[in-house]
Structure prediction request, 519 residues.
Amino acid sequence: MKKPLLLSLATIAILGTTNVSADSMYDRFQAMELEMQKMKKELDELKAKQHVVVAVQKDDKKASSDDEDEASTNADNEDDDEGDDDEPTVKEQLADIQDTLSDLNKNTNGNHLKFGVDYRFAVDNLHYKMADGSTQKNNAFMTNRLWLNMGWAATKNLSFHGQLAYNKAFGARSGVSTPGMETFDWIANENAYNDTLRVRNAYFLYKDDTFIGADVPWTFSVGRRPSTNGHLVNLRDDDHQSSPMGHNINVEFDGLSAKFGLENVTGVDGMYVKFCAGRGMSNAAPRFNTAPYADTTSNASIDLLGFIFTPWSNGQYTVNTQYYWAGNLIDETNASNPAAGFTTVGNMHALTANFVANGIGDGISDYLDDTIFFVSGAMSITDPDKGQSMLGSADSQKGYSYWIGTQMPSLISEDGKWGLEYNHGSKYWRSITYGEDTNIGSKLAARGDAYEAYFTEPIIDDILSLQIRYTYIDYKYAGSNGFFGSTSGNAVEISSTMPGAANYVDKAQDIRFYLRYRY
Prediction:
């Protein structure tokens, strides 16, 4: 009998595997758990076998002493034969499997909730040219970003996923612009008061292969959904894509979703539909109000409803579409006095469609096979409340945006890549992309032109990587990163003669370098 699972390549691969994303970490620990179950089963079988051998020897001993001596001699001969063939004894196999189980337990911490770490250090060189010709800058804006990823499957169909996030500028504390002694960053974790670690994602996911007896794979999820770094935006961010299309929505919110695969019933490759709903702001009184959590009279809750429809995807070429409606959108009541709060100004419709080629041509070259190209178009339609205006107009206005990009192999390493992107937005274009990972403001929200180039390269396997990225935005109209009304979102043309020109950004650029550790 050969050594069982201990020396198998599968076990060695599992114990030595390192992965990048939360999803691959999750799969890795699932594999570990399955391996542990197999080993435990084999351990029980070997123990049972050993028990049978001992029982037989005891019976032989009771029969006669001569038979016992003969059995002992035969056993010794068998052990000698096993030694000659380099075969392990049952005791050796038991010891080896128990050692490996111990290693696996250490790797999984003996828990069913598995963690992964994603830490990024970044330094940005920021430069702004204001409408009056003056400039503002920060030559070295440094940040720490930490994501603690977690997830595990309770059953074959049901799993939990979560992510804690910390994003902080060097030498600063969240929400503190001019720190006093008690809130100074030097003692942030040495004194007995709280700093901020936020929940970025927390949701459960149910999935099944059939829906009400039909051959329709489906999923259902509810919680704080992964709604940032969606389709196409994830390429430059070097992340696994979330479900929303990043062209016109990239924000965190709480909600639910249900996805239905239609490929089996329609015969069309990759077809699916996904329904989503969420709440971006809750209209509820504080806990210790007269009527806790009752609706307030200030602003209505901001809700989002939408769906994603992929009519076709064959693995190389994909067409995606998305529609959403956002209700009870807000704007600052007084831009010069943030304490005045917000005013509800109206609703908005948004549509997006894109085409993605994951590989150019068919076997023309390895380089083109690994090249991604995409083109995306989007439209926003405002719906102002009576007596209100949105984006500087009391009438419904349509805004447009288009976005093209490509990502190619780096030529330096097998896994490195570099990319180029360009996007343009019209006067009344409005996206909800406040969560975009660009410190000068969302490039996809720009009413004007945005250009971007990036280079991402692994340093140590797929654990440590670096990126250099350049983003340039040329604004044609103001309010690109404001809210939805006519205070901060007013789409006035940018010029040196506009009122308050010194307060409007005309052009902005961000040169970013980061080091990122993921395991």
